Amino acid sequence: MKLPSAYQLKRGYEYFRKHGIKQFLRRFQEKTGIVETEYPGWFQEHRASEDELKRQKGKSFSRKYLFSFIVPAYQTPEPYLRELVESLRAQTYENWELCLADGSPDGATLEAVMESYQDPRLRYRHLKENYGISGNTNQALEMARGDFLVLADHDDLLEPDALYWMMEILEEEPETDAIYTDEGKITMDGDRLFDPHFKSDFNWWLLRSNNYICHIFAVRATVGRQVGGFQAEYDGAQDYDYILKCCERARHVAHIPRILYHWRAHPGSTAGDPASKSYAYEAGCRALNAHYKRMGIQACAEYTGLPGRYRTHFLVQGNPQVVVLLTYTGIERELLACVEALREGTSYQNWSLWVLAGSRQRISQEVVDRLKEVRLFQGEKASLTELWNQAAQVCGGNYLIFINGAYRPYRCDWLEELLGQCSQEQVGIVGGKLLYKNRRICQAGVYMGMYGVAGNASEGAKYLDEGYSARTISNRNVSAVTEVVMTRRQVWEQLGGIRPGYRSYLGMADYCLRAGQLGWQTVYTPYLQLRSFRSMPKKGVVCRWKEEEGRRFQKDWKEFLEQGDPFYSPNLSLAGPDYRFRRRDENI
After folding, report:
1. Which domain range does residue 131 map to?
2. Confidence of residue 418 (pLDDT cuts 50, 70, 90)
3. Does residue 253 sit in the same domain as residue 340?
4. Residue 309 domain-assigned?
5. What separation in angstroms does the CA of 460 have from each of 12, 463, 464, 506, 578?
6. What pLDDT digit, counting tens, does each position of 44-96 carry?
């Protein structure tokens, strides 16, 4: 094990002083866990080999796009600039230019570095003054002649195949207007790789929670120039503002699930200490609210206090009728407690509660008498999904909520939280964060392909665990949610409810995927939290469907499962919900 550097020890001490021993130990455990210790070896195993790079150099494309790297500079250390330049000159796709706008008082050093290579692709402009990060970036933008604009920092590094994979995307999907890749961090001395960020495919809701795209980001020049450059009012979050604007206009945003960019971590940088630039996160919040205004979305974002994380409150339009369909678990005390929690803990007014019991379930008359103003629906069939389908046919409502009767909500505004998001354009389904009685996470969205079929995200993690790249605490698009679900009546009728043949919560996962085929989005919100009456099983994660039903799902969604869940990552394991590296020999 390599000993920490003096810089890392200093950062650790500062973190300890600021956050206390409990948070420090938790952070230490994260940073010395499997992702940190295995990442350098994993990366070396997965980066392009010399033979692969040679093959890439021989590849010809139908179009030869020019990529302009937009790089503002200010007193950049010469070695860092050289490393950036050399990582560009090593690209297997060679049609690029570096546009460097230098706001340093004395530009002689950086100009000499650029001239020393005698490479016409290296273009340098010394500015009359330092215009700030946005102003300097705009100066670099003015220099660009390329078909695509690429945002990069003056001290970071690219893998030699970064542009090659962008060209592959453009060859396969010509309407792509924006591209981003996975990334990792590198120490100041360039000696150690750490903190890999394996990203989701394009995810509007996650982007509205934080700038998960970050590096490396390329945009078609026609789109990038339409948005009007970088705004000084968002300094510190100018890239986030720019990315939001570009994604608003892009026909297609593509993701390359390869680590092709290394972000240098140094004191005072966001990469080195995410909490060091609180002003940047306030600027990011303003940029996000400006995005909502441009898009005509009635919403208000707030900075959560966690570095780069935002929460959005969406205004509920009108007064839609909501029907809550509560599935009876067979335990009367749970039923009474859940009904009481819903009655006393719901601030939204226009809603009604139905209790669904299967044909073989019986509820005592004493309990029935206590269920005032609750509609008791006794189904003709025994299965969960058949019960849902039968009740949904007769219950009315603009929105339906299916709740596993073992859960009850934490907050009285839980319906407003669901409605605010489910009423947004293209959103058809919303689910929340489900917790076991012992405060372990049961579900934070569902990933397709986990365990060979589907699995709950972050299951078994502690209640306060942020999850990989804070996914557990971030609003985001997911492929499915299952045990507590709000859906539009319109979507339910479009799909005809749950498909016959599915008898468990796997039927709801199938429902979410079919909705996705019609263009409806499924969203996970961490701000709806429901807690179960039951603790997590001692044996850990359990299968929630029969083997035969799992095989049916695998057959129905064979192509989708082979391609992989777009909101997960092919670099992460499907053997469990703990976000470990995926082994090359993994076979689920």
Report:
1. 45-271
2. very high
3. no
4. no
5. 28, 9, 12, 19, 9
6. 999 999 999 999 999 999 999 999 999 999 999 999 999 999 999 999 999 99
